[in-house]
Amino acid sequence: MSDIARGSEVGAGGTLARKGSDFSGHVNDAHKASKAKIQESIQRVEKGIETGKGVRKGNIRSDVEKTNKAERVISETDRAKLNGWKYAPSDELYLKYKHVYDNPKYFKQETGEINWPGTNGDPNIDGFVNGEYKIETLKPGLEIDRFGSNPGGQYFSPAGSSYESRALPPHMSEQPYTKYRVVKEFQVRSGKIAPWFDEVGEGIQYNSQLEIVDDFGNMQKATVKNLLDFGYIEIIE
């Protein structure tokens, strides 16, 4: 409680009480005036902040748009390089994965050819970590999947494996995804996927490099097409 308030409570007939009462009235008037001024000031500040925010947002938006536009443009140097590639990626794909395409570890910069894991002295033969794998028999009912439209493909993963865990090259992100069910058992090389193309890897891959028997008892490559044609796998819709 303030000294003024305490003074007003001394006594109704006391001098201090009267002085406190008069002073309290002045304080109340001053408080009302001050409150009005404060409210007016707050409104001015809020209006200024809103205006300032609008300008700031506009500037940020403009800067972001300029940055995005710059990032969407391929430099003359990069364009000249890509023109020499046999299978150049789209502009959008190149800009999205520029750090991968520009890395000579993954792509020959003169031709655009892919440097797969296990080549050029890399120990991860056929994409397996340190080239290590085991022979595994895939049993009927097992669901496997893959990205890609190549009928001669021979790589699968357990259905539902993340894209990143497969360590695929950038263009595979635009390829169709297909899920399969094993109908007849067949053997594969199974092992952990080596990190590559700046993807984490560490998933499991099934490499169907081992041969299968066709309907006539002949040995055939276990490609996607042959596995389908000879009834070893079926597509899950």
From TrEMBL:
<feature type="domain" description="TNT">
    <location>
        <begin position="137"/>
        <end position="234"/>
    </location>
</feature>
<protein>
    <submittedName>
        <fullName>DUF4237 domain-containing protein</fullName>
    </submittedName>
</protein>
<dbReference type="InterPro" id="IPR027803">
    <property type="entry name" value="Toxin/Nuc_N"/>
</dbReference>
<dbReference type="GO" id="GO:0050135">
    <property type="term" value="F:NADP+ nucleosidase activity"/>
</dbReference>
<dbReference type="Pfam" id="PF14448">
    <property type="entry name" value="Nuc_N"/>
</dbReference>
<feature type="domain" description="Toxin/Nuclease N-terminal">
    <location>
        <begin position="1"/>
        <end position="53"/>
    </location>
</feature>
<dbReference type="InterPro" id="IPR053024">
    <property type="entry name" value="Fungal_surface_NADase"/>
</dbReference>
<dbReference type="Pfam" id="PF14021">
    <property type="entry name" value="TNT"/>
</dbReference>
<dbReference type="InterPro" id="IPR025331">
    <property type="entry name" value="TNT"/>
</dbReference>
<feature type="region of interest" description="Disordered">
    <location>
        <begin position="1"/>
        <end position="25"/>
    </location>
</feature>
